Amino acid sequence: MSEDKKMIRTDQELLDYIDILCRLDINYFFEERFLPKQKIIEQEKRYTSVFIIKEGIAKCYLSDENGKDFIQEFLGKGMKFGELEVFSGNLSFCSIEAITRLEVYKISYTHFNYLLEHDKRFNRLVMKAMAIKIGYKAPRHSYQQSYTIEDNILKLKKAFPELTEVISKKDIANYMGITLRSLNRVLMKLNEKNNKIN
Amino acid sequence: MSEDKKMIRTDQELLDYIDILCRLDINYFFEERFLPKQKIIEQEKRYTSVFIIKEGIAKCYLSDENGKDFIQEFLGKGMKFGELEVFSGNLSFCSIEAITRLEVYKISYTHFNYLLEHDKRFNRLVMKAMAIKIGYKAPRHSYQQSYTIEDNILKLKKAFPELTEVISKKDIANYMGITLRSLNRVLMKLNEKNNKIN
DNA sequence: TTTGTCCTCGGACATTTGTCCTTTTTATTT
DNA sequence: AAATAAAAAGGACAAATGTCCGAGGACAAA
Predict the structure, then answer these.
(1) Which terminus in chain B has less CB density within 10 A, N or C?
(2) Residue A142: inside a domain, yes or no?
């Protein structure tokens, strides 16, 4: 499956490169751990570090005034967060919460900027990651509106069979931009179809 | 209004910097013109240049198999397109079409890469533009799913009163991810409300 | 075991949105 | 001006989705 169709996004290339940097005794990266459901970044707050996931899964989501969440991405190995604010200078535009136990690398804005300026390879990897992220989000939102929920679920299940075991239904619904009720309805319909076949 | 809430996106900073580079006799940028409705980039094709809008408005959109379009962004002054593929190496993920008469700067991948590597200011501006783009798209898709069409239209009209004069209704509908019928229905309802008040 | 709490699922109904199609309006060409 | 094409508007119905709420299961405390 192509890199940009996965539901849980990863960036092994970046992770490998950070490993290399760490072995070179560049002590910019500090390891931290988080438990499931711990919030690492909150929307509309200011931070001074960028995080890169070493192990585990986190969700990146926006909350609106009514408390509804909309999940942007599920972040896996090698995905970073908190980096957009380095460039834009804005407050955090999303919240990040651990889904599984999480190990992350943490690097200060200062060191992150230093690497961007002085390490061409690092600079490129960050650029590439942003470009891929933009390209990933576009079709996702587009297709979710063009196709029925049923199609989207089938697509998800195909791409990621363990789906419902790792990620809660509520999260899946929030990822698809639908209510839990609608998700259940479609799952029920799909099960009926399968029973008829079997 | 904050930069990232505008419907037609711009990046004056980048445009100004390109002007400076051009005056320094850096001949990487070639000017081109397009007429309304001309396609400049087609989805799934390969290109070798990056474009930056000098004047005019274009739309960036994805088409699905059924011929439905989903508009990602309306691009104005200083917005670039075709640059994501420099980093990802993929085919163009979207189509770009001129809405008004368009003047653009065109720069080859080679020169674009050269500038990225050797001009820190340019590198930063490109990074920043990508970060803003990511931050812009997230809440847009999120809110479009959380709120009613009516709310979204009111928001758009507030942010951009000339809306319906510059951009066709079909395009607005495609931008919102709804059908033209739904858009008309809501506009009708809004008009009724206004008439009752006046 | 019983009770109470929390969570998930799904029924019933209301609302929204889409599809299909016809009519009206506006713009363009001859 | 007439003819034609293109864009906009809206009626009627169908389908999808959301809201509200109650039933039942899992689990913890008594």
Answers:
(1) C
(2) no
